[in-house]
Amino acid sequence: MRTLSFIIALTLATFSLNAQTAIHFDRPFHVAGEVAWFAAYAPQPAPKKIKATVFAPDGTAVDYFFLKEDANGQLNGYYRWPFEVATGYYRINLQAFTTDRRVIDLGTFRHAVYSDQRMEPSATATAGKGNKLPAANGLTLQASPDGLQIGGLNGAAYSVSVVNTDVSGETGEAFLQGTETPRGPWLDTLFYNANVSLQDGSPVVTNLLPVFDPGRYEFGFAKTGPNGNFTLQLGAFEGEKDLQVRALDPADIKPTVALPKLAAIGQEPPLTKEVAAYVDLSRRRRKIYQLFATVETEIEAKITAEERRKLSPNRDFDVQDYKAFPDMYTFFKEVGGELRVKVKKGNYSGRLYNAPNQRFFLDSPLYIVDGKLTQNENYINTMSPAEVSYLAYYYVGSELRKYFPALGNNGVIQIETLREPTKFPEEDADDIFAVKGLQPKASFQVRDAADSDVPALSPLLLWKTGKGESSASISLPATDDFGSYRVLVIARAADGSLRSVSKSFTVEVK
């Protein structure tokens, strides 16, 4: 497997305290449309970043994202199950990347998810059980409707879930622990397995595959394997963004992110009468929340924008000063004279002036339109100046080699538009592929029924992660659901192993 590096920060782990991985889910199972909150406890010292891939029951990957270790040394995530999911065991696979560039599986954890369609329970079905909880080993818990008192944390990271067990049931896979996993040391990076092929499907085998990252306005390079495969490494970013690969020759290529596939799980989670009742209540809750124009679980997450590398153009223009021109060909002819454009039989060809050498480059420049690469000069010259906000020329050799290596040998023209063009050249659009980065940070939103007109009816009363010096005191939010509530606390011990404690309390009818 080959490796491409943009921004790499090394995190060296010289020893491993505990080589097991675990996940603490907020509740034993979920229904379509619900949000699963979870805490991942990775081998210690933990990777700074891990990839979480979500698999459907048939083993196909349906989503992925990265989790970043927070200030408490935790890897916390969330996932809204699609509203259209079918009943089955879904899986979350965790992976990390080592300093010797290996992708390591930390563990795969299955979780029961049910469709929100009406269903008849099985008379013989019994609730599933998760892995045996770790011993308390000094961890203590006091629980009441007013709040929680957790003792014996000893400065460790912990996670807490408080669930109405009258609704969700007592058992299920809320805690899952993996087997022994290989140790690091880990590389602090986002990582992707990818492939690149020609349009006929044959692999692209090359020692120099340029990859452009428009978020940072940077180029990286990959060396592909015999099947057109390579490993892409990126610096941290949130959400999703596009990357673009280019061939050094005129070949039309197509990149893809390679996602793994697992064996299918034929077994379905048990359909007990408690689950059927829960699904029915879930539909009723949604109808109630619909009246308030909201959803049961809000996710308040704001994506942090990347900082684009600052470039110093050799000449630039505010094209809106010339928006009356009929096309960019006229703009280049009348204003931006460093680009000399010729027209032959309706086809345009341009050469950028190499000012330091006082001559024109020998071939067409590289155009970057809103972060997308193209050399389609018919597309560029027929654009309307009224749609272009900014244009810049780069033609000094030393800067071209620094900012636009390999592809900028004949100069670069940067174009920014007012609105993203809808007719980008198809042969260039095929070079673009999307990658997902860090999951934007979000916190479980606690509803206060006393201060809100929206009812608090979720079976999940509280989900919280943190780090306690010695103990933690947690106030519980108000709820409109009465019944028995179960508290589960998972905490890491000083040696990296996990501890747990669980208690129940009752909320009386008001």
Automatic annotation (TrEMBL):
Residues 1-21 form the signal peptide. Keywords: Signal. This is Uncharacterized protein.
